[in-house]
Amino acid sequence: MKQLARGMAAYGSAEMAGRVIRLATTIVIARHLTPTIVGEAALALTVFELVRVLERVGTGQQIVIAEERDLPSVCHTVRQVYWVWTLLLMVLQAGIAFVLAHYFGHGVAGTMLAALCPVFLFMAGGHVSYFLAMRAGKVGALARVNAVQTISDQLLTMVLMLLFPGPWAIVLPKVLVAPIWLIASLRAHPYHAEPGVRGMPLRQILGSSGSILAADVLSALRTQGDNLIVATMLGTTMLGTYYFAFNAGLGIVSSLVGAFGSVAFPMLARSETFDARRAALGKLGIGAAAIFGPLVLIQSLAAPYYVPIIFGARWTEAASLVSVMCLGGLTLAANQLVSAWLRANGQMAKDAANSLLNCAATLGGLTCGALFGNLMMAAAGLVGGSFLATAWILARHALPLIARRTGPPPAPAISSCPTFQSAPDRKATDPAMAAFPAQDPAPARP
């Protein structure tokens, strides 16, 4: 529990510092932009999120779990593979931007999406250093990287919004702070390729990529697909209102869930026996309930009062949406913990199955609610579907652990089994205001 407290203090304080600035940015945006304009930026950032999730092929996590003797070879291979992969993603995103602008009539959103392509270059530059820092347990250093990146993004967004109000004030800072993230990551743990090092076989580095990518893509569809459904079924203006409600409702909680995942996965993965790992899971579960239960309930009940006062009268009707969205924070925390447990035990296929269930339940509930042509019904369907899926997942994985006294041995290391282990993806920061989406197993990244 002390380890959880220290880790949450490091990551959580950085997240909350960023959240204070992000809240101020959200207020400025809410008071300067209409839902229609916010919706245009939301569309571009949503597509960017869906493309960006494809970079999670488990390369960084192989650095974390590698045997010391294999580390130089693993880093060498990961660096090469990740550069090639991110360059391909840049080409893919540019192509989607062209289609969005020329075939769907969203010229502004398409141009903004194209402008976000260079972010992948900075991600590749700091990838190995970031995960070497994670391997070395530099929690404080990584927390500072996240805080510097997030705060810089929010300050730039506020300045641009005050000087040039418009959707570009939301998108451009994501590109401008990418070099800051890269420099901070390299300083956290400098990496220089050793000459003459032979690479690892690709099957060891990418052996579990299919399951990892499937789980993370499904998670991204769950957290970003809702925006596409709302835009398609209810229109861009409704998307702007929904996007605001999601940010205001889940911004604080999702940031802390990301910090929680960054602490939970290493605690579980470092446990040498199954019983020790299960004991760590119990402590993490108690800690999660103590942190997220009161926070979610207080924020949900208070939403009708603070939304019109803080964000302006034009968003008064969105207060009830914010209250409903807040409740989804409970399922985010629960699923984060279950996914960290499964991946720490090398059970990526089960994690992918859970992601599929969550994705189908939440987006299915949202779609059913949107059929009524009402945002409140859509939000209720989203949260309701998430609760149903989470209840099933907890019953499937938590109850057997409570009843079982012994279990299987811990998952083998990379030298004997090329499995990937990390915490799940999440909407770790406000999607409209986030600097760059978070990295597995949940730190922020460009």
Automatic annotation (TrEMBL):
Main location: membrane
Region listing for Disordered, in residue ranges: 410-446
Subcellular location: Cell membrane
One Pfam short name: Polysacc_synt_3
Stretches assigned to coiled coil: none
Entries under InterPro entries matching the protein: Poly_Biosynth_Transport
Stretches that traverse the bilayer: 82-105, 111-134, 252-269, 281-306, 318-342, 378-395
Gene Ontology cellular component annotations, sorted alphabetically: plasma membrane
Keywords: Cell membrane, Membrane, Transmembrane, Transmembrane helix
Membrane topology value: Multi-pass membrane protein
Family to which this protein belongs: Belongs to the polysaccharide synthase family.
Protein name per its UniProtKB record: Polysaccharide biosynthesis protein
Originating species: Novosphingobium nitrogenifigens DSM 19370
